[in-house]
Design goal:
single chain, 179 residues, 0% strand, globular
Length: 179
């Protein structure tokens, strides 16, 4: 089972959905085992383990969101760390996982957008380019969630002090959020 082989993960997801259809509530034990493995494999220092953890979280969010209720804080931590990663493959998968989380109406994942907004528009530290790119890509692919992100005003002051590409991308993200 190769971590970056999306076909294998899609097959796993199809098998889980088939089992869910045929096993009903007795499927909970399998889902709980996957959830526990996801938490165990969340090791930012081990790329394959980290990616596996994110892939399982994404599958659970899309198909078994109730299984995440007891570990919602852990799920948010995994997502927040992944979208801030310097590794593009982790950040990309983190973006897809964030989109999955935000698409669930009955769970409070939208509060993550407040945390993300604070990270993006903090006066004390500059957000990473990875975080800006992650938010930008999520907004572009799921524009209906852009209203969940908030900020007082675009970081024009920051841009005038430091006209780096990171600040231009942040400013562009602000414009995308507003309009």
């Amino acid at each position: 089972f190769e971590v970056e082989d999306t076909k294998s993960w899609e097959t796993l997801e199809k098998i889980l959905l088939w089992l869910k259809k045929n096993l009903g509530t007795s499927m909970n034990a399998t889902v709980n085992m996957l959830r526990d493995k996801m938490l165990q494999w969340f090791l930012p220092s081990d790329l394959p383990s980290y990616l596996s953890s994110l892939r399982i979280l994404n599958i659970l969010l899309r198909n078994f969101p109730v299984s995440i209720i007891n570990i919602i804080t852990d799920a948010e931590k995994i997502i927040m760390e992944s979208i801030q990663s310097n590794e593009k493959v982790i950040r990309d998968l983190g973006c897809r996982t964030l989109e999955s989380a935000l698409s669930i109406n009955d769970m409070p994942f939208h509060y993550m957008c407040i945390s993300i907004s604070h990270l993006l528009f903090s006066d004390t530290n500059l957000p990473s380019e990875g975080l800006i790119n992650a938010v930008y890509s999520v907004i572009k692919s799921a524009p209906q969630i852009r209203t969940l992100f908030t900020f007082a005003e675009p970081p024009i002051q920051r841009l005038s002090k430091d006209p780096s590409s990171v600040n231009f991308k942040l400013f562009d993200t602000c414009l995308t959020l507003r309009f």
